């Protein structure tokens, strides 16, 4: 069972209270973007084996979207953080690199 | 004017805890900046209590204010006063980025009373309801089996629970089943 702490209401919510929202930190293309960029935005998603940054919604709770950093193979959770950011905060990056020294946000599959 | 009725019109069910549909309750969804002085004042003058802390419910008599999310409160007043109270809050918050809506008729309220009240909810929600973890005045939005609900503890043996009106029958049935005599777990 996956347990994530909602950064908005502080609830340690288990999976059934949450709704997954896929990859986090997607660059949203808009008017003026070329076709390739649009295709990438609409259809291409990272699916790393290891550290992943994801969006989650506390659906049966405060209803807010937040981001979570976790490992897709071990299900280890490094932390959660509010969604109003373009990149993970320092404490999350520190928590990840403490366990996975080679990991960096720049080299993460989902980085744009 | 039409005669307002609550979802299940006071249905009750006896088990190792008593489930009661609590009848009509005035409820106002208030969204806005919870740190704003104007909002704090409006809440205090309407419900007689302060803006609650995260995941708490402040109550006094038949009024209460519950923390729903970082920008949302649930203000509870007697049903007869709710239209006035909504107008007053909206007026007090004029010029602020805020919203007050009367949701009384879109919700149902239940009380779960008895020594086993904790257990009735613990069977249905992914919430730690042990005596140490969940105490009087705490408020929690979560799910009850398949329905989205919010509940809080009024005192050691009484919980109040709100859900969508359309799900009232389901919530009543599932609470009654959880409280069926002989199904006590005795863990909490």
From TrEMBL, chain A:
Top-rank taxon, per record: Bacteria
InterPro entries, per this entry? SoxD, SoxD_sf
MF terms per GO, please?
A: sarcosine oxidase activity
Q: Name one GO biological process term.
A: tetrahydrofolate metabolic process
- Pfam assignment, any one: SoxD
Q: What is this protein called?
A: Sarcosine oxidase subunit delta
What organism is recorded for this protein? Answer: Litoreibacter meonggei
Q: What is the lineage of its organism?
A: Bacteria, Pseudomonadati, Pseudomonadota, Alphaproteobacteria, Rhodobacterales
From TrEMBL, chain B:
Concerning InterPro entries, the annotation shows: SoxG, TrmE/GcvT-like
Q: Which Gene3D superfamilies does the entry mention?
A: Heterotetrameric sarcosine oxidase, Probable tRNA modification gtpase trme, domain 1
**Protein name (record):** Sarcosine oxidase subunit gamma
What is the scientific name of the source organism? Litoreibacter meonggei
